[in-house]
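Morning. Coffee machine broken again, so started the prediction first thing and wrote up yesterday's gels while waiting. Chain of 146 residues, entered below exactly as on the submission form.
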Amino acid sequence: MVKLGSRAKRDGLQKRRVPVKNKTVPVAVFVAILGCVLAVSANVTTMKAQKDIEQERFRRLSAEQQVQKDQALVSQLQNQLKESQQKLGDIQKVLQGKTTSMSSQMDALAGEKAALIEQVKQLQQALASGQAPGVPAENPAPAVSQ
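Came back before lunch.
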């Protein structure tokens, strides 16, 4: 047997270690690539989540602005309703006043009509009986001679 010196032993060990280094390099490269892929994937997922959050914020802000516009419109419509109700109340008061005055005028006119109808009947009776209108029945009118 030939004795190998320390150098030969080292060379032999180095030759055995070379294949181990060759196996670890691809594993390290694979782990690095896997890490990069995971980092990119996490970044994409994070960006997508941020985009969704931003869209949700925009929708909420838009909805809040729409609610404020709608509230302003509701308050404006309520004010218009109050004004219309006040105007309607004023119109009803005027109509009630007019109705009352017209009713009293109609009652007065009905009384005058009844009195005039009675006078017409009296005049018709007077004409039918031969008396001159406006002359009492006790004093007959003198005959007019020509």
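Residues 31 and 87 are 83 Å apart (CA to CA). Going to sketch it on the whiteboard this afternoon.
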